[in-house]
Amino acid sequence: MLTQEDLFAKALMVEKPWFVDKVQFDQDAGKLEIWIDFERGSTFYYEDKESGIKGHFKAYDTTQKTWRHLNFFQYQCYLHAWIPRIDMGDGKVRQVQAPWEGNAAGFTLLFEALILVLVKVMPVHQVSQLLGVYDSKLWKMIKAYTDTARACEDFSSVEVVGVDETSARKGHDYVTLFVDLEEKKTLFVTEGRDNNVVVDFVDDLIAHNGNAEQISQISCDMSPAFILGVEENLPNADIVFDRFHVTKVLNDAVDKVRKAEVAKNPILKNSKYLFLKNRCNLSEWQAQRLEEIQLSGLNLKTMKALMIREAFQQIYQAPTAEIFDKLLRKWYFWATHCRIAQIKEAAYTIQRHWHGVVNWIFYKISNGILEGFNSIFQAAKAKARGYKRTDTIKAIIYLLTGKLDFSKINPYYVTHSKL
């Protein structure tokens, strides 16, 4: 008949030479404590790659260690064990790693796998309250996992990249994300948004078996810093200006026209989003209001600016590169002869970045996935009420958008991630 200790050994998957020696349940303290020991005379496998020594060794002495394990119903569970240290014959004593021992100090592998699943859907502070663990210990574990998983990443096949910045903290603190647009995952996160972020990306790319000369396309906005960084560090990359960022230049111009005209035309009051949204995204009330403005007979510059923007957006429906270029040239002539200063300036901006705008028709890549990742991070930041440290920000972005394979570090992660 199985004893209590045997049952817990099976539940914990404790195998020889390890065995459960004692179980103690304290209902008042809300704890289940389990003591694990090993059979006397047992040998333990250990390998030291640096010295080239490996094999099975007997215990030289032991040290006691404790780990937090998965809760037993609502009670916290702790494992205690005397862990052997071995003498490998080179004058140094090493400590054996227990089979259940996690990568962060004081946690079991199963407990860490649960934490990784929870912090993907909940703020770390809430997870700490749920599990009764200090925030600092959870963050230390998350950073250890993301750093270790990233060290295993292979970027040798990366060719198409998107780059964009996102707000990290209140004020003007930013981090820049580099994303593999084919694999749809974050490759690299770094502080700032100047041309040096591309230098940092290339260094990280090379460190992960990537090649700067292999990057053939890069999608970005019209930031001079990004353009300079790409031109200096990614010699074979064709720059493709993201269509949504290009359209934003015209959106801003339309809004400036509206602001300048609203003082003389009260009909434009409270109409900002009528002109910033695409018509297909307007509510029924908004569409009706826009139609009233259009039919007012006031010959508003704002309406003309809107039509010029909408005409520009239609260019992206061109079936061939030849037609795209032809339509863009016709549009440019119209925009620069429309007698609306704000629109003319926007057209000149597009003309200065002509090659990158036209490149879209050849590659048809965009930063849509980056915008999605930014939204995921901003939502997590809002739930957590902000992050103070850059290393914390990087860790959470990698965790949520990096598609890191934690199963290489923790075999139990696969099981928990499917829950």
- Structure class: alpha/beta
The average pLDDT score comes to 90
| Main pleated sheet | 6 strands, mixed
The dominant shape is: elongated
What is the C-alpha radius of gyration, as a whole number of Å?
30 Å
Share of residues in strands? 15-25%
Number of helices: 16
Low-confidence stretches: none
Tell me the distance between the termini. Answer: 33 Å
* Element string (H = helix, E = strand): HEEEEEEHHHEEEHEHEHHHHHHHHHH
* Strand elements, count: 11
> How many discrete structural domains?
3
Fraction of residues in helix: 40-55%
Any chance you could write out the topology, listing elements then pairs?
Elements: H1 4-12, E1 18-26, E2 31-38, E3 43-48, E4 53-72, E5 75-87, E6 93-95, H2 109-118, H3 124-131, H4 135-151, E7 160-169, E8 173-180, E9 185-191, H5 196-207, E10 217-220, H6 224-233, E11 238-241, H7 243-261, H8 272-276, H9 284-294, H10 301-315, H11 321-336, H12 341-352, H13 354-363, H14 368-383, H15 390-401, H16 413-417
Parallel strand pairs: 2-5, 7-10, 10-11
Antiparallel strand pairs: 1-2, 3-4, 4-5, 5-6, 7-8, 8-9
Helix pairs in contact: 4-15, 5-6, 7-10, 7-12, 10-11, 14-15
